[in-house]
Amino acid sequence: xxxxxxxxxxxxxxxxxxxxxxxxxxxxxxxxxxxxxxxxxxxxxxxxxxxxxxxxxxxxxxxxxxxxxxxxxxxxxxxxxxxxxxxxxxxxxxxxxxxxxxxxxxxxxxxxxxxxxxxxxxxxxxxxxxxxxxxxxxxxxxxxxxxxxxxxxxxxxxxxxxxxxxxxxxxxxxxxxxxxxxxxxxxxxxxxxxxxxxxxxxxxxxxxxxxxxxxxxxxxxxxxxxxxxxxxxxxxxxxxxxxxxxxxxxxxxxxxxxxxxxxxxxxxxxxxxxxxxxxxxxxxxxxxxxxxxxxxxxxxxxxxxxxxxxxxxxxxxxxxxxxxxxx
Length: 327
Known about the structure:
By secondary structure, this protein is α/β, with parallel strands linked by helices. The chain folds into 2 domains: 5-116 and 151-203, Spore Coat Polysaccharide Biosynthesis Protein SpsA, Chain A (Alpha-Beta Complex); 238-326, no CATH class. It has helices spanning 17-26, 67-76, 96-106, 125-142, 159-164, 178-185, 206-225, 238-260, 264-278, 280-289, 295-326, and strands at residues 5-13, 35-42, 58-62, 80-86, 90-91, 111-113, 154-158, 192-193, 200-201. The strands form 2 sheets. It has a 7-stranded mixed sheet. β1, α1 (17-26) and β2 form a beta-alpha-beta unit. The longest helix is centred in the C-terminal third of the chain and has 32 residues, at 295-326. The termini are far apart. The model has no long low-confidence stretch (mean pLDDT 91).
């Protein structure tokens, strides 16, 4: 390979020039000649290329094909021994590149996940809740489990290993469960969590958060029933699935109580109690890491977060049923 680099940073973008500019500003490439940044514009209208002239990057424009295809396309154009995939709505902390390169040179890493920082980049209670949720369910729980979680928005692969495993599944057109499908294909391969680096994420806010969670839960259930993915042993387990159902069960019993005018309201307290006690460790984590005044709003957000998960799961079940009937 001519002009071989040590690290290729591959970033798909789509109609978000402000995000990619902010990310590129956070990437410190000074004193790193053995590095390249590849931008794959996945059909933005208008093209974002003119916004990026001042940055030292390689830019490619393709018709809209989804993040999996864009990542694979970027990998095919890369020169790096290691491939770092980043979503465009991330921010890199100071010395990220330097620390990552030092880690990759020291350790024999085939595939590694880079976790989100505990603090959200955006100053918004919904974004901060999601940052806490991901940190709790990945960083803390992974300390006691074999690491099998692939974080698609920030992960690194050894080049030959990536291509040997056929890259991202291009049949998945939307950013949803492509990282979990890839993790399943990796089989028993350990996915290293790079503990010395982290990224900051612009997590969605308000209704957008619940909408995204609904859609991802829908896609996850469909793919699980289709045997394309599996439980990760952390945030996705049979137990967490049962816990996430409690808000839906609560509202179902409450609605039935109002319709039938029976005393089902008492039964509705049962899923509410299960929800509270099953999430005590997470709520304690929130209490320890933020202001007391925010705990109640966080609990309400988590309640509706789980409701979005369960509604999405129900939608995925219906979609799969129709798929099996009419395919």
